[in-house]
Fold this sequence. Notes:
The chain is an alpha/beta fold. It folds into two domains: about 1-95 and about 290-320, NAD(P)-binding Rossmann-like Domain (Rossmann fold), CATH 3.40.50; about 105-280, Rossmann fold. The chain is built from eleven helices and twelve strands. Strand 10 (about 230), helix 10 and strand 11 form a beta-alpha-beta unit. Helix 4 (about 105-120) packs across helix 6. It is globular, with a radius of gyration of 21 Å.
Amino acid sequence: MKITIPDDYQDIVDRLSCFALLAGHEVTRYREPAADMEQLVERLHPAEVIVAIRERINFSRALIERLPNLRLIALVGRAATTIDYTACAEHNVLVSTGASNSPIAPAELTVALIVAGRRNVALEAERMRRGDWPCTLSHRLSGSTLGIFGLGAIGSIVARAGAGLGMNILAWGQETSAAKAAAAGYDFATSKADLFERSDVLSLHVRLRKDTRGIVGPDDLARMKPTALLVNTSRSELIQPGALLAGLLAGRPGYAAVDVYEEEPITNGDHPFLSMANVLCTPHIGWAEWDNFELYFRECFEQIVAYARGEPMRLAAASR
């Protein structure tokens, strides 16, 4: 089969041990994202199978209709909000998903961003590399309040790490978050406003759905302390468009650490956050580590092997 793997940003997929599962198939990889729809169609047009790495491509109806050879979209991960499942079904394109959803890697990056953001690690490291002497005072984590918006699998790991650093944990979210907070002995905010007002560090761990899109707005950010740090390693769409930039420019919150953006990938330094000393940016690498890649890509390639045998597995609901 002809298999295309677009947007292999790390240029690493063919070095994973699980890549051997695709032996005997014609595999084409692209690292750089397509410049426009025409180039994207040109790259994907020959493919019978496309490996969809998370949500890096929007498989819209307009795109699906221009890929007559496509028979399977094999997802790296369990779900994607960027696939028109109805259009896939109408064009006999199956969508298969992974089985795993490991919280460890994104939780680790979140903790790293919290520590680096509060202690000015990246800022001072860059100054030292330039030959400058340190010129900032950072903020102690111990004794401060770590707000967790969504005490799910990832949020729970971050909360435990924060507690281990001596931080006071303040959670907020649905009833399941309240129950988990009570079981762990964490404080639970009286409201979303209370969470934003009291947090010295506020980390977002809410799953993106229709009802959570834009759940953080300008009024929420305006409640934050001018010394507070907002951390988002979840989804940029949880924050209303432009609200975080406006909040940072207004001084509430005073700092941010982000791994996700409204438009990705960010290339050529083309984002206002990158020119702001009070913002720590990473390029959506929360899930990007060896163990995670081996797990997620192995499950994706197993889907392809099963499809080649005529036994497609883990089909998305709309594909069945």
